[in-house]
Design a protein that fits this description.
By secondary structure, this protein is an alpha/beta fold. It has 14 helices and 14 strands.
Amino acid sequence: MISRRAFLGCVCGGTLAALAAARPWGARRAHGATAQRPNIVWIYSDDHAENAISAYGSRLAEVAPTPNIDRIAREGILFRNSFVTNSICAPCRAVVLTGKHSHINGVIRNGIRFDGAQQTFPKLLREAGYQTALFGKWHLGSEPTGFDAWDILPGQGHYYNPDFITPDGRVQREGYVTDIITDLSLDWLENERDPEKPFMIMIQHKAPHREWEPGPDHLTTYDDVKIPEPHNLFDDYSGRGTAAREQDMSIAETMRLGADLKVWETVEEDDLVKQRTYGRMNDEQRAKWDAAYGPKNQAFLEANLEGDDLVRWKYQRYLKDYMRCIASIDDNVGRVLDYLEANGLDQNTVFFYSSDQSFYLGEHGWFDKRFIYEESLRTPLVAKWPGVIEPGSETELMVQNLDCAQTFLDIAGVPLPGDMQGRSLLPLLRGEQPEAWRNSIYYHYYEGEGRVHNVYKHYGVRTDRYKLVHFYTLDEWEFYDLETDPHEMRSEYDNPAYAEQIAALHTELDRLREHYRVPEDPPPEQA
């Protein structure tokens, strides 16, 4: 496992030794396995922004690197244009499982119970002889189906001493959630799986979801660092419509000093959020927390900041806590990579890292996700597969979380169901350039105004250069030229210079809605 200190202290250069060309299922056997079909490891975090992975080269790359996630990209492939279909937690997870858009799989927003009776890729892999396991965040209401082993967080779960739902009931485990999820996963790999069968394991982290509670190993990480600000931290939304102006997800107005930023001195002792976070810690954990945050909070309170200075302080505290949570994820990605290598499993394992969606890291003055704008439409995706994926490769082709189910099935040699709506990424993993690859993606956010963060319902289309968005409950349209306005600061929908491009995108949007069988009337708000 590579530490952040070692990563910052050296220049990572050179190239990996050339790997011998091999059939995907021709890797060496491990632990007595006779099956040559590849294993699949899927590590999935929650709200991990593409801009918070140093392999993507963002403004955070130098101050807050992610060396172990970068290691996947360096030894495999990085997807430059990876997108989601609906940027919110539960819908993204349902899309990955089913390979179908939200209006088809039924989970259009958070809080809807996933129908576990429907077809999912873990069920199909299991029927084909794979062992399947899931550990960590589930967030779909129903119990997991299609897994030989599972151990999930209830709802969003807790960072410290979390509860887990198991097939035998609920248990509480002491420790930090990211470490515990990895412990459970490695224990299953070492002690519970059948080494004669190929496996697929989903390791699904809670972090770095709000309220961004760092683990005990990283409470002071980045204390001596200043996080670079985005140029539009103080965006006034003058170039966009009602939705951007009326959202409730700004660092300035929405982000809470106590619950979000850990200045517990500003809340009452019985504050519910404080009790479900800080209140869950044991004495040792709380002592470490107080030693780390007490002096920093006292300095903040004495400064008595206001206006832009307060926003800037909140941004620094938010980003550092967020990246501290990611530091623990990165450490644990390294643990899994090291385990596979130490046990001879790495050569016949396809290893993915992704997130349910990206997240605003101060861009437009925001946190959270939901919008079709780039920072939350995108999601990171890196993969490694020795002997198949060329180390250090990248692709600019447009992919979506809609493609995951078919990709996993194709890797395993399982026939692809005709009713799935994505495309297998296996040709891209092999370095091929398929003909007639998609040149646009469809997006639809259903949760809507009046719910958390007050983001209006909308759908839209994105091509390699342009984006057209319909906020349909407002009957407002927005259009962006991503080449001239990559940060989407001004809608050009009413600009006659773009009339031809806007007309073409209207046609493409209609085509995609018909292709994906999107109903004219949105699905009902299911309980």
